[in-house]
Amino acid sequence: DTTAHFSDLVPSTRCTCVMIMLFNQLLDMPPLSCGWIILEDNCSLTGIDMPSQVFSCPQCPFSHRREVNLQQHIRKEHLTEEHSRNLDSGGAENSLPSSQTIQRPSIKTTKKYICFKCGKGFRSPSDLKRHKGVHTDMQPFHCNQCDKRFKAKGSLKQHQRVHSGERPYDCSHCGRGFRTSDILKSHIRIHTGERPYGCTICGKRFIQRQVLTRHIRMHSGEKPYLCSICGKTFACSGELMVHSRIHTGERPYHCEQCGNTFSLASKLKVHQRSHTGERPYPCTQCPKGFSTSTRLVKHMRIHTGERPYPCVKCGKRFSERGNMRIHQRMHEKERKGRQMTICQHCGKSYTSAAILKIPIRTHTGERPYSCSVCGKKFNQKHTLVRHLRMHKGDRPYLCSVCGKACFVSGEFIVHMHFHTGERPYRCKLCGKCTSP
């Protein structure tokens, strides 16, 4: 009978039998026809002789040596979404023998708690409960600083270290700290040179598995992460998360000195260098330093004369992509038969009326931005912002050498030349260098 049938099964095997029996009931098949096929025995399974067992689907020719694969197959190919929910809610067990009437076998299994969604096994009910959150949209743990939500408490704890700056895992090679042990493990491979994950297509090797996964998508062209608002697709979830902030306007990283907010932690880090004066990327040809590697690369083209961005229309080359795109707009307007926008006061030409709008105020004297404190007017908004700092006494740019604070970044850069001795301006007539 059913009870005798179940009493011979180990708990993990019993879970699969429950699934198959429910499946058979849904198909109006005999209730004890569980589809369990063992090569050597009938339906008495002790769980010891695994290689001799084959688990077969009662509906199609599919079979496998692992019951987990059979569970996944039945869910994917045969059960509807409604039937799966019925199985998860315990509907199957209501029509099958009670677990109290089944005699537990003496053989111990390491992972007897099975997830009915994916067939994965766990050692304890709490592990299974945490895992079930993967299959739902519930995110009960939320950050009280940026309102980001998480499915697991451990994930929230790791995230909060972003705000607190806590880095409890130190590298024994360089002393650098990290937020999680997994990040530390990947970092250590930089010192050891270990690259355990290799691409089967081009042979390139990587330190992290997820980097390899993103790399493989370059070969396949796969972009599985879709923006639900604009439809743009991305190769990794991180790119989608950053992109979504364009739509939401979320800027979770803020500067404590001036209040500016940023969508990326890396952008905040670069911005903070404008306050500290840190310039970690020095030029090898001159004493000048830069806050980002990108700015250093652009600067080096002054020394090398490199102009890597050519115009496809006329062949003229540019050191920066932005300048090349501005130049190409001239050809685009010529192709459409439209004239450049000419300033009526000085005769200068501009690619659009929007660009001409600001310089024309120099001729007309228009000053649309006024100070609410003293009434002084300005022709550009950012000039008014700098002016307001004088009333507030706000000096966000602090010199780390002498402690002097400046209103604007330009004033701060000039001040730093006194400490560094840098003289970046050369006279074309005599060759003498000077500072501002």
UniProtKB/TrEMBL annotation:
GO cellular component: nucleus
Domain of life, source organism: Eukaryota
A GO molecular function held by the record: zinc ion binding
Residues annotated as domain C2H2-type: 55-83, 113-140, 141-168, 169-196, 197-224, 225-252, 253-280, 281-308, 309-336, 341-368, 369-396, 397-424
InterPro entries assigned: Znf_C2H2-type, Znf_C2H2_sf, Znf_C2H2_type
Pfam entry (one): zf-C2H2
Keyword list, A-Z: Metal-binding, Nucleus, Repeat, Transcription, Transcription regulation, Zinc, Zinc-finger
Region (Disordered): 81-103
PANTHER family on file: RIKEN CDNA 6720489N17 GENE-RELATED, ZNF44 PROTEIN
Record's protein name: C2H2-type domain-containing protein
